[in-house]
Automatic annotation (TrEMBL):
Broad EC category: hydrolase
Classification via InterPro entries: 6-hairpin_glycosidase_sf, 6hp_glycosidase-like_sf, B_Glucosidase_GBA2-typ, GH116_catalytic, GH116_N, Non-lysos_glucosylceramidase
Keyword rRNA processing: no
Species the sequence originates in: Zophobas morio
Span of domain Glycosyl-hydrolase family 116 catalytic region: 443-806
Family according to the record: Belongs to the non-lysosomal glucosylceramidase family.
All copies of domain Glycosyl-hydrolase family 116 N-terminal, residue ranges: 84-383
Purpose: Non-lysosomal glucosylceramidase that catalyzes the hydrolysis of glucosylceramide (GlcCer) to free glucose and ceramide.
Key words, A-Z: Glycosidase, Hydrolase, Lipid metabolism, Membrane
Designated name of the protein: Non-lysosomal glucosylceramidase
Lineage of the species this protein comes from: Eukaryota, Metazoa, Ecdysozoa, Arthropoda, Hexapoda
Amino acid sequence: MSSSYYTRLSENQETKVPNYGLKVTLNHTYPENRSQGYVPGIRQAWPLLPQALRYTFYYILDYIRKKPVVMDFIYPLRSKRIYGVPIGGIGCGTIGRGYRGEFCRFQMQPGVYEYNTVDANQFMVTIKDSHQETIFHSLLSTFQKKSLNTWESLIDGSKCFYTGLYPRSWTEYDLSKFGVLLTCRQISPIIPHNYKDSSLPCTIFVWDIQNIGHEERTVTIAFTFKNGVGNKHKDRASTCSSTDFVFGEAEGVILSHTIGTTPCSYILSARANPDVKISKCLYFDPNSPGSAPWFQLKNNGCFDTRSKEVEHIVGEMACGIATKALVRPGRPVTCEMSLVWDMPVVHFPKKLKEYSRYYTKHFGKENAGVRIVHYAFENYPRWEREIYKWQSEVLEDRDLPDWYKSALFNETYYVSDGGSIWVTLDKGETQNLPQTDPRLEFGKFALLEGHEYKMYNSYDVHFYGSFVFVVNWPHLQFVVQYDMRDAIFNEIPDKRKSYDGEEFERKKSNTIPHDMGEPGEEPFTLINCYPTHDVSHWKDLNSKFVLQVFRDAFTGCLDDDSVQYLRDMYEACCVLMHRSENFDTDGDGLIENSGNGDQTYDTWFMTGPSAYCCGLWLAALFAMTKIAEVLHKPEDKRRFQMLLTKGKLAFEQKLWNGRYYNFDSSTDEGCSIMADQLCGHWYLRSCGFAHEVFPQGHVRSTLKTIFENNVLSFCNGKMGAVNGFKNGAVDKFTVQSVEAWTGVTYALAATMIQEGMWDEGFLTAGGMYKSMTDRFGLAFETPEGLYATDFYRAIGYMRPLSIWSMHLAIKSFEKNKRKQ
């Protein structure tokens, strides 16, 4: 391709640096360094003391067994405050990138995070003048490395700028002192409604090189990478080899190795074009000073390739690739590089079965890496067009605040970097499925509750986060729902002891599981790994299944596929609703909470009818009347309508206090103002319904009360909505009542926008997002909870994906505004 093509490309609206996203210099430091060191008060800790003692016992037991814990409260992670846009597609493993240029936070094995920054994984630049004298040679990262002491970073971080707008990033290097400007554009194939490309384990790096001086410059961009994930124990146990390849226009190095016992290949490549010369390094020792590759590049502007293959090295090894180009004044040159990782088959510690990653459906299991390289180089311009089209609707909307334009897309990082696993079905699994089952085409998909809360598809949290899939990848939401539907009828009679001291069956039939298992056992098979309570008694999960079915079908047009989906889910919905009816102990049409951890706020105990669980229950009853109507089941509709009518009356009588709905029916905690009390209404509004269940006046009064108390009276509106507020102050009843949950704040903001409270909604969510990204440095590892000062909890969490419900609310608001 000609340099004129690249000039046009760099000027293209689709590829230029956007005005929005995470924007920092490469020497940036965040002003506030928070931790997970919150210590609960005596009143908060005392009710949880028995659980804490049992947890400690089981923690020690798991340590002896060498089994990873599901939730590590002893050694919680602390944010490194370094992260930029991660690389890779959905369900295929991810590699984190720091905004300073580092490669960090590896998740190659499903659900297993390695928080390591690897010094050998680097980009470098060499600049030679017109006499072929080296005038500049440096790493292109400002991260302080600990090894390879020959390698130096000489760039001025204050003159280099990073912009991260998921799934792309731009790093601009001002090397004008040497007559050169560099821009690296990083592109991962995260594309709505494109399932094939979104599953690919790859990223593209496009280097635009400009000569702003008056003399020629020869510029080399080198890319090095080592085996493994930065875990010394795993990396040193690996058997490695490397070979070079040429495939179409791509040239590069294949680094074959193992991660644990799983074979994996890293493929570094560059795209050949007339302006660029490619050289390769098949081996260097990442534990050495790094002199050989460093001085080859510095002196010659290329690697000295003496062999085509390096065989069977036990331990660590690294390789590299370099592009060298003559750059004339005023004639930009572009170098295209890629990183692909190919780990086609994965398994979990129990090794009950092997899983083939979804991308193997299109690229096979043998030597897929080089085919993905070729495909990525051919198709990344289309990816960028589709990403730009997806984002421009939001970025160009002048009515939306700037922070939201960054937040909507950057919070989406979690769909790939949430420990996601996406696999195909084997022949045995497909034999008994009807042709209408989406898993035949789209396989199985799961996402961790959090980087630290290692449970797949935790359903109480997925209820919030699933909006990202409904809007962008609806078939992934469908396969989650079909798996969850089947799991309802499954039984695992194994006895377990919970942290609250009860013995219970791991999975009872005709109950919905909390999760689809953990990466430390065998997800999809050994479901319900949540260890704290017996989830068969939870009061929110049943309603949440029904509401997700309702939302999935009613958000768009109710077409034949949606009706079939409702038919497929209907029996499960009826079973769960019947089970929930048994939670109504006094026949008033409302379900009662038990006074223990029986819903997603599992340390904030609810007693009797509660605003949260009863609101979800009433919304689910309304949903069932509509589903029964679509499926022509008049008797069922009548029964659900009778329950709804009775329940609505009791809900208003027992919980409405004239300003908002009481937290629950207890005497000590009942008057608490819960930020999430309109959760059921939020879902109905997201489906296009208005005030059929919850009176408009009561909804508006509740939102106003929450805004004045939980938002404005909590950190002056700069930290989102605190979960509980009572008697003019933050409710200190429990740890969770003093937290502001990021995902709940986004959901609350969406509810406000749904009700026409546009300014209040954006202020509620905006204060929180700006604090996280501008002050705390929590970009691309959004936590579950924030405290008023000093602390956060559970970094890297699924629930904040609920921000996509704000997107739906905005579209609905604007649609109604146009009608008026």
